[in-house]
Amino acid sequence: MVVNLSSEHSLVSNWISEIRDTSIQNDRLRFRRNLERIGEIAAYEISKQLPWKTVETPTPLGIHESKVLESQPVLATILRAGLPLHNGMLNYFDKADNAFISAYRKHHRDGSFEISLEYMSSPALDDRIVIISDPMLATGASIVKTIQYMKDEGTPREIHVVVAIACTVGIEYIIRECGDTIKIWCGDIDDELTAKGYIVPGLGDAGDLAFGIKIQS
């Protein structure tokens, strides 16, 4: 399942417009906050599909039968760019467990790159609902490697992927490599990917826009 949160107009499409806009991108605080907002909306939409149970809630005047989450998800993000999106989801899933993965593009002199995954800090994943966030889904290689690594460590019940902007190429790659049981939630979807693996029109490097330009060793 693939959900495009901008398929119909909402505040999400307004925030997506702002994170794309070069005249607004130099405001890092605003850029991070917009990613955080997108994460909050994604968390709310995903929550509608998660298992729930009924509990008796005592109030000053009686007992109310309330619908609550059956269990808390594991919120996972890819460092460093995924942090604002992750924080937005954590604002809503405020009791969730968390996982952090250091997957990044390791560039070669010929212009090619490979995905290097050197670190993961995670709770037990067996029978857990896992939500992985990363602002950009370009080739899909980072997400696929992360999913494969997590499956080596445990057997999640469900896996959701949350991104601000996705490319159709990356979506198709995830489905091809990981199966169509992965649920992908996108702030918006673009169709073009450059030879170097950048989304067009996209928005640029989300990590640099959120936290400053990095050196590439």
Descriptive account of the structure:
- By secondary structure, the chain is an alpha/beta fold.
- It has a single domain (2-211), classed as Rossmann fold, CATH 3.40.50.
- 32% of the residues lie in helices and 34% in strands.
- The protein has six helices and twelve strands.
- The chain has helices at residues 11-20, 28-47, 83-92, 141-153, 168-178, 206-211; strands at residues 2-4, 52-59, 62-69, 74-78, 97-107, 113-121, 129-133, 136-137, 158-167, 183-190, 192-193, 199-200.
- Strands 1, 4, 5, 6, 7, 8, 9 and 10 form an eight-stranded mixed sheet that branches.
- Strand 4, helix 3 (83-92) and strand 5 (97-107) form a beta-alpha-beta unit.
- Helix 1 (11-20) runs antiparallel to helix 2 (28-47), helix 2 packs across helix 3 and helix 4 runs parallel beside helix 5 (168-178).
- The longest helix has 20 residues, at 28-47.
- It is globular.
- The model has no long low-confidence stretch (mean pLDDT 93).
Brief synopsis:
The chain has 217 residues and is α/β, with parallel strands linked by helices. The protein has helices at residues 11-20, 28-47, 83-92, 141-153, 168-178, 206-211; strands spanning 2-4, 52-59, 62-69, 74-78, 97-107, 113-121, 129-133, 136-137, 158-167, 183-190, 192-193, 199-200. It has one domain: Rossmann fold.
